[in-house]
């Protein structure tokens, strides 16, 4: 994990494509570090390819949890809808994005043991090559816990 909050390519580069890849990765790491919202890029296999510091803070994954397969990792959180019902795993924004859907402004609660709940507004989009090959999904989410608490207090 770099100090910018995302994984960095390692090793030396000799070829122009490798240098270009390293340059693009450095740009992506800088963007991820600058953004206050949580950002994740997830491979079609469920592997976390990038996670910024804001996402790490909101999700609270340990290093071991980050390396779990997607469904197992998701099982470390209890995810509920605005109505307090369990969020169906196949309907989460990330899973929908893997099916090709762009999803915007889905509000959900992420419950972590023992007593931590974070409300997020989440967007998800598939990442595709110009030929249409699915490379993964981009998840972007904002912590809306304070807003949600105000809404609950006022109702």
Summarize the structure.
Helices cover 33% and strands 29% of the residues. By secondary structure, the protein is α+β, with helices and mostly antiparallel strands.
What does this entry look like structurally?
The structure is a single chain. The chain is built from 6 helices and 6 strands. It is of the alpha+beta class and 155 residues long. The chain has a single domain, classed as PAS domain (Beta-Lactamase, 2-Layer Sandwich), CATH 3.30.450. Strands 2-1-6-5-4-3 form a 6-stranded antiparallel beta sheet. It is globular, with a radius of gyration of 17 Å. It starts with 15 loop residues before the first helix and ends with a helix. The relative contact order is 0.14.
């Amino acid at each position: 994990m770099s100090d910018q909050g995302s994984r960095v390519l390692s090793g030396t580069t000799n070829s122009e494509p490798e240098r270009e890849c390293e340059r693009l990765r450095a740009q992506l790491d800088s963007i991820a570090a600058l953004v206050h919202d949580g950002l994740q890029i997830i491979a079609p296999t469920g592997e976390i390819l990038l996670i910024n510091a804001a996402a790490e803070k909101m999700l609270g994954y340990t290093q071991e949890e980050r390396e779990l397969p997607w469904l197992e990792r998701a099982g470390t959180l209890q995810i509920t809808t605005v109505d307090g019902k369990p969020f169906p795993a196949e309907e989460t924004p990330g899973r929908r994005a893997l099916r090709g859907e762009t999803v915007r402004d889905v509000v959900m609660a992420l419950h972590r043991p023992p007593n931590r709940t974070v409300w997020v507004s989440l967007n998800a989009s598939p990442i595709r090559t110009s030929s249409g090959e699915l490379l993964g999904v981009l998840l972007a989410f904002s912590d809306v816990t304070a807003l949600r608490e105000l809404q609950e207090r006022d109702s």
